[in-house]
């Protein structure tokens, strides 16, 4: 695993390659535009076709490599700073079937595609924490045939050592989904009373179990600490949290080189509030591993 110095060197090298690629791409387009302006149609169009082909064959790969190196460094040294067994997983680790089986959001792998980006994982206090940026869509039946709603955000999962079986619960933000999609999603649950009706969330249960006082308090604290919170799912496979339209990576210009301070910045301050909630859900009082 690269240390900070090696990571910055790798980002710098890939940033330079991406910048040269982008500048070349831009200059050739300017040249093509000039040729078209003075009447050199055949040469201008040939330059455009060549430039587009070069971008898809090489340029895009160089720009993506720079973005991935930057995001991996930000995740390892910023988001996951101080954690154990940190790993950047990219688009791996979350299948469409696994996401659908959680039944926390309206997604069907048979009719929709799940896009997974910038995945990572780490361990903390005998808990295994994973995260991904995701995009997916679901049919909006209220808007007519072939109409879809798209959702993007960050999904996090956590399992705890010897955590035992968790209650089958879904905390869902009101009006985040279209009416019919929400009704279809919650049809397998029954609604539970929730102590704060003005919080903008409803709590549902898939079985007879109900949250204890500490878990209920944990929900309310999570809602207050994480403005982008969209859904929280607990079941015998762990805890899942979805943040709607909230991401922990960002697009940068080709050639951007961060400082060590920038790379160490935590792009997701809500991480700590989620870890507190995970400990509450698992009743994990262990100080460390």
What does this structure look like?
It contains seven helices and nine strands. By secondary structure, the protein is α+β, with helices and mostly antiparallel strands. The longest helix is centred in the first third of the chain and has 39 residues, at 41-79.
Which helices and strands occur, and which strands form pairs?
Layout: H1 4-37, H2 41-79, E1 84-90, H3 96-101, E2 115-124, E3 127-139, E4 148-160, E5 169-173, H4 179-186, E6 190-192, E7 201-205, H5 213-225, E8 229-235, E9 238-244, H6 260-264, H7 271-282
Antiparallel strand pairs: 1-2, 2-3, 3-4, 4-9, 5-7, 5-8, 6-7, 8-9
Helix pairs in contact: 1-2, 5-7
| Assembly annotation | single chain
| Structure annotation, total helices | 7
Strand order of the largest sheet: 1-2-3-4-9-8-5-7-6
The largest β sheet comes out as: 9 strands, antiparallel
Q: First CA to last CA: what distance?
A: 22 Å
Nearest-integer average pLDDT: 88
Shape: globular
Radius of gyration: 23 Å
